[in-house]
Structure to design on (364 residues):
């Protein structure tokens, strides 16, 4: 198979194309550095996507201009371009769908059921109103393992397992719900998903330790619960019980 | 080849005590089980929850979800009564021996029952 030398290097001889690509890469590094410094979760998420877009752009630009012709002439290129378009669209859709499908799968799973007209549901409505966020739907997870988490896509939802409800006192349960409400207020699930995507798509992710950031999110959610309750007693009690369950099992 | 033993033969002392409590009371919540056992031995509420979940996964315990204004909880009950359970244990043990030792086990049983 003849390799078209001009096609391979033609891109790099074109000062406009090279400048655009270098500018995109420089912006990508700048977004990355800004993202590392940024403490506000929403801005951090935006910077992650800006970094990923500007990082991938030169590669896509190369492929759709000269790259596809570098292997074998125009004929090959005509079939490769649509194939690559389909590949990128599929990749993007699977990432978006994956994020959308997770809450939908949880919603229609036989292991979950929505809780309505319950004291805890009323508690959530009142606290969400005070925090100025949309009232999340409360879902019960059919599991003896104490666990709680939230999802903020489409509609905010909080999932609590029966095991959690069974082991905790009323106040401890409220502390857990407030912790999840704190996550929803800060949109932590977006941040978690975006850092996951960053790890997957950017080689720069090896230079970043996202764990302190995710720990900071947990701490902020804890602080929200403690501030509302005026004490850390109940949240700590809940955490002790969850840890005790995990240790014993 | 390693034989897969029946779950009944792998019950820990705490699992056995939990089962005994269930046979006595028929249906119990985790907290009731905790109250049943805490006088007999040093045990935590979380340990009882783990044990009941483990027994449920082994098929020895059944559970239903109960919802009230106070909260949500499981109501546990034994899947088999004590007699059925013990019969099942013996059955599994004997079947295990026959599978593993074949004719030697059968010959021993013949001798043993002939006495």
């Amino acid at each position: 198979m003849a390799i078209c030398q001009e096609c391979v290097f033609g891109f790099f001889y074109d000062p406009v194309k090279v400048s655009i690509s270098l500018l995109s890469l420089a912006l990508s590094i700048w977004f990355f550095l800004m993202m590392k410094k940024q403490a506000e979760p929403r801005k951090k998420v935006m910077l992650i996507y800006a970094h990923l877009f500007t990082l991938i752009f030169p590669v896509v630009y190369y492929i759709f201009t000269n790259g596809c012709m570098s292997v074998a002439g125009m004929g090959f290129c005509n079939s490769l371009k649509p194939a690559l378009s389909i590949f990128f669209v599929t990749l993007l859709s699977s990432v978006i769908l994956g994020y959308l499908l997770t809450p939908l799968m949880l919603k229609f799973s036989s292991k979950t059921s929505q809780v309505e007209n319950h004291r805890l549901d009323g508690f959530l409505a009142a606290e969400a109103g005070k925090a100025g966020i949309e009232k999340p739907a409360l879902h019960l997870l059919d599991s003896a393992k104490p666990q709680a988490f939230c999802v903020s896509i489409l509609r905010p939802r909080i999932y609590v397992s029966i095991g959690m409800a069974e082991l905790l006192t009323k106040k401890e349960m409220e502390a857990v719900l407030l912790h999840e409400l704190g996550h929803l207020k800060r949109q932590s699930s977006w941040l978690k998903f975006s850092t996951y995507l960053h790890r997957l798509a950017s080689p720069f992710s090896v230079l970043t330790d996202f764990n302190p950031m995710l720990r900071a999110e947990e701490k902020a959610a804890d602080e929200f619960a403690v501030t509302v309750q005026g004490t850390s007693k109940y949240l700590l009690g809940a955490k002790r019980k969850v840890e005790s369950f995990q240790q014993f099992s | 080849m390693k034989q897969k033993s029946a779950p009944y033969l792998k019950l820990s002392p705490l699992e056995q005590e939990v089962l005994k409590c269930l046979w006595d009371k028929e249906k119990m919540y985790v907290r009731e089980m905790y109250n049943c056992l805490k006088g007999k031995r040093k045990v935590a509420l979380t340990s009882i929850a783990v044990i009941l979940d483990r027994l449920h996964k082994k098929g020895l315990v059944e559970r239903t979800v109960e919802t009230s204004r106070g909260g949500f909880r499981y109501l546990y009950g034994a899947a088999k009564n004590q007699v059925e359970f013990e019969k099942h244990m013996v059955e599994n043990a004997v079947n295990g021996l026959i599978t593993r030792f074949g004719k030697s086990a059968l010959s021993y049983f013949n001798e043993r029952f002939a006495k």
